[in-house]
Amino acid sequence: MPDESFAGVSPDAARRLLLAAVEAFAERGFHATTTRDIAGRAGMSPAALYIHYKTKEELLYQISKVGHERSVTTLTEAAGSTESAPGRLASAVRSFVHWHAAHHTTARVVQYELAALGPEHYTEILGLRHRCEETLRQVLEDGVASGDFRVSDTRGTTTAIMSLCVDVSRWYRPEGRRAPEDIGELYAELALRMVGCGQAHPGGERRS
Amino acid sequence: MPDESFAGVSPDAARRLLLAAVEAFAERGFHATTTRDIAGRAGMSPAALYIHYKTKEELLYQISKVGHERSVTTLTEAAGSTESAPGRLASAVRSFVHWHAAHHTTARVVQYELAALGPEHYTEILGLRHRCEETLRQVLEDGVASGDFRVSDTRGTTTAIMSLCVDVSRWYRPEGRRAPEDIGELYAELALRMVGCGQAHPGGERRS
């Protein structure tokens, strides 16, 4: 599945280089990848790469930025809707899981290579991660305030729900038995249970 | 915290090499690490390394094996106790989380470098992963049978609980505000909620 998260990157050559870098980093890791490998995968010369990205770290930073901005958008849209807190939580989890499954290769690079970012880029990305976490936490707090959720540790439960969604990118296999949509649906139910919302019945039915 | 998971590896030089390999793989990734780096970190010569491990992959395989056998033991002990299903699930999650937090560096290598294993080693490690999953799934099925749990999708919920525990190794920081024990306690409660066991009260109290 082509990763449409990079659709906004232009010119075309810069986008192709980012996609090539995602593949290379995912296969070999950041430190074992050279800019020559990346240029080669994109069908370009190393000199052509340097027009767009001065360093290998710059490529990783752009990938991390696109990935994290996508997460912020996904969570902000879900959290900002006019639905009730349970509806907003379910919808945030559904779309967050869907992205991490459908784009597991990008997501792995985004999640596992953070330590290779330069200090300023690292700080910037941490800020985006913080926004994701705060956005989801607000949904939990709204649900507690409205009496829909029963949560003893809002911060820890927020971290756990984020973690559950992110880790889909580690174990998801496209050839596996579950489609990204199915995982999203199951995880939305599990997240509602984690915040003590409603009671699932033995048949697995739940009011939504 | 020294990783006691490797305490059973002997002789001492072989154990030191595994610990050095864990550090190197965690910092730079498997593909960017050389056996020379590993020998150097252990204060040994490359020739001394080859006495114990023929290839870099052999080091990764031993690390993966120790880590996965540790997971099998942890889960089997918890699952095999005479406690009720909720008690067994809580205890499995507590110890699984504790290991993934306290030994997050080993755990990251074990979880993220699987693709670098040779085909035979990969198959063997997958077998151990399968045993972990089956052991936890049995606890869920026991809890459903005893009426303690309400789970519509046992396989998917098992994967989710395993995933939640494993991913602690990604985000855990020793300097963070939570000790491994605290995360284990919270996650045991969240896992019980995920299987529809009991109802947490607004104050977060729960019968155990």
Protein described:
Two copies of one chain form a homodimer. Chain A is an all-alpha fold and about 210 residues long. The first copy, chain A, has a domain at about 55-195: Orthogonal Bundle (Tetracycline Repressor, domain 2), CATH 1.10.357.10. The first copy, chain A, has helices at about 10-30, 35-40, 45-50, 55-80, 85-100, 105-110, 120-145, 155-165, 170, 180-195. Chain A starts with 11 loop residues before the first helix and ends in a 14-residue tail after the last helix.
**CATH superfamily label of the domain at 57-194 in chain A:** Tetracycline Repressor, domain 2
- Name the structural class of chain A: mainly alpha
**CATH-defined architecture of the domain at 57-194 in chain A:** Orthogonal Bundle
Radius of gyration of chain A: 19 Å
Kindly report the CATH topology of the domain at 57-194 in chain A: Tetracycline Repressor, domain 2
Given this structure, which CATH class of the domain at 57-194 in chain A is correct?
A: Mainly Alpha
Oligomer: homodimer
Unreliable runs of chain A: 200-208
**How many strand elements of chain A?**
0
What is the N-to-C order of secondary-structure elements of chain A (H for helix, E for strand)? HHHHHHHHHH
Mean pLDDT of chain A: 92
Q: Whole-Å distance between the termini of chain A?
A: 30 Å
Q: In one word, what is the shape of chain A?
A: elongated
